[in-house]
Amino acid sequence: MGAPNENGAASSGSGGGAPEEGAPRPVVGRIGAHDGDLLRRVRLDAIAESPGDFTTRLDDARGRPAEAWDRVAEVHATADDQATWFARVADDVAGMVSAFRTDDGAVTMTSLWSAPGYRRVGVADVLVETVREWSVGTGAVEVRQWLVERNAHARAFHESLGFVPTGAERPYEPSPDIREVELRLPLRA
């Protein structure tokens, strides 16, 4: 997973911040079972815009058959241990996030992205809050997020929401000379 760049795009965060006065508040809803085409379109837009911040390569994502996107949408719409949400402003998809529950009682957040034109207006904030609330509902003890180490903007955004470094690092899959760092948001005292 990557992290947002200064423009706010990426899989691991996306230019959050307090909404500007008068900005419409995004409405977040869980993916529908038949939203495979929408999932594909939004993920391809995100990866194309920020190819160095996602672990999925654009060519690989484009090459996935429609049935694969449909299966993910169906599972993420109904599963208790994994989900995807879209943030919408009017008729526009303003962002997305996915999350999955791990065996150790945590939730890992992935694919956090705000669309151009919807950055610094609170989209990422409401998406992260949605994951936090869902995580609490599953009984998770924390939310985890992997960020590309070079992305200071993403790290500052996550830390502003209470995420703290765990000290864990791993190679960034598309470019192993770059590291990813893990952050966690504790959900219980």
List keywords for this structure.
single chain, about 190 residues, alpha+beta, seven-stranded mixed β-sheet, 7 strands, disordered N terminus
Secondary-structure topology with pairs:
Layout: E1 27-30, H1 36-49, H2 58-63, H3 66-78, E2 82-89, E3 92-101, E4 106-114, H4 123-138, E5 142-148, H5 152-160, E6 164-172, E7 175-186
Parallel strand pairs: 4-5
Antiparallel strand pairs: 1-2, 2-3, 3-4, 5-7, 6-7
Helix pairs in contact: 1-3
* General shape: globular
Can you summarize the main beta sheet? 7 strands, mixed
- Assign the structural class, choosing from mainly alpha, mainly beta, alpha/beta, alpha+beta, or little secondary structure: alpha+beta
Number of strands: 7
> End-to-end distance, in Å?
27 Å
| Uncertain residue ranges | 1-19
Helix content: 25-40%
* H/I helix tally: 5
What is the typical, i.e. mean, pLDDT?
Answer: 86
How big is the Rg? 15 Å
Indicate the proportion of strand residues.
25-35%
Strand order of the largest sheet: 1-2-3-4-5-7-6
Following the backbone from N to C, one meets helices and strands in this order, namely EHHHEEEHEHEE
